[in-house]
Amino acid sequence: MKMNFSEKLIQLRKENGLSQEQLAEKLDISRQAISKWETGESQPDMSKLVLLSDILKVSMDELSGKEFEIIEKSPTVRREKSFNVLWFIIVFVGLFAGLLGGFFIHSAFVKNENTPIFDNLKISSFSFYDVSSGNSSRTLQIVFSPSISNKDMSYQVIKTDSRGNTISYDAEYINGVCKCIIGADYYSGFTLTAVVSDKNNSYSAGLIEFLNVSKDGLTYNELWNK
């Protein structure tokens, strides 16, 4: 039987042995918010949905209760498939002819190994979560939505400390949202920058500047919305 999001959330929470209070604490939200999700009164935003899928150890499709329907092939489907194959052949031939026509001008374009970074990337949403705290550092999960994206691009978060030293963290891209885990040493300041790269160029945008990290908390300035 197909389950909706609220029913699936209740099932997965119980399978993971979590109370509403425990799940709310991991998400840094109130227990009442969890209760509203489970009664269907409200829905989590994308950043919370991504974090939920991590905590409950399921894909976002499974969490949302999606099921795949098997459709029996009909003559109409077969005709549509034949048309798609023919269209694919036409497009392939056209692309091949275009490649041959552009062969002699291709040598005029040389890829620069020192790929420039362009500052026209926009961030539509940003958040971070204090995943864990140790004796000398914190672990933070960074979640952001870039304006530039496709399946061929790569996503990173660059951490730059006060001395200019940098560390690159790979960010996982799922359904328009990037997320990654970074380490933050106590009594240190650093800046996080999002970098999205394709085969030719890289695009960057500031995310957040952490002024200080300690056992008591974090002080910071948000950069993504400026």
Write structural notes for this entry:
By secondary structure, this protein is an alpha+beta fold. The protein folds into 3 domains: 59 residues, 434 Repressor (Amino-terminal Domain); 32 residues; 106 residues, Sandwich (Immunoglobulin-like). It contains 7 helices and 10 strands. The strands form 2 sheets. Strands 1, 4, 5, 8, 9 and 10 form a 6-stranded mixed β-sheet that branches. A hairpin with a 2-residue loop joins strand 6 and strand 7. The termini are far apart. About 10% of the residues have low confidence.
Layout of helices and strands, plus pairs?
Elements: H1 5-15, H2 20-27, H3 31-39, H4 46-55, H5 60-63, H6 75-101, H7 103-106, E1 117-118, E2 123-133, E3 137-146, E4 154-161, E5 166-170, E6 172-174, E7 177-185, E8 190-197, E9 202-214, E10 217-222
Parallel strand pairs: 1-9
Antiparallel strand pairs: 2-3, 3-7, 4-5, 4-8, 6-7, 8-9, 9-10
Helix pairs in contact: 2-3
Structure keywords:
226 residues; alpha+beta; 434 Repressor (Amino-terminal Domain); six-stranded mixed sheet; 10 strands
Largest sheet: 6 strands, mixed
Distance between the termini: 47 Å
Structural class: alpha+beta
Count the strands? 10
In percent, how helical is the residue content?
Answer: 25-40%
Sequence stretches where pLDDT stays below 50 over 5 or more residues = 67-78, 103-113
The Cα radius of gyration reads: 23 Å
Q: What is the H/E string?
A: HHHHHHHEEEEEEEEEE
When the domains are counted, the total is: 3
Shape: flat
In DSSP terms (H or I, runs of 4 or more residues), the helix count works out at 7
Question: What's the CATH H-level superfamily name of the largest domain?
Answer: Immunoglobulins
The amount of beta strand, in percent, is 25-35%
CATH class of the largest domain: Mainly Beta
- Roughly what is the average pLDDT, rounded to an integer? 79
The CATH topology of the largest domain is Immunoglobulin-like
CATH architectural label of the largest domain: Sandwich
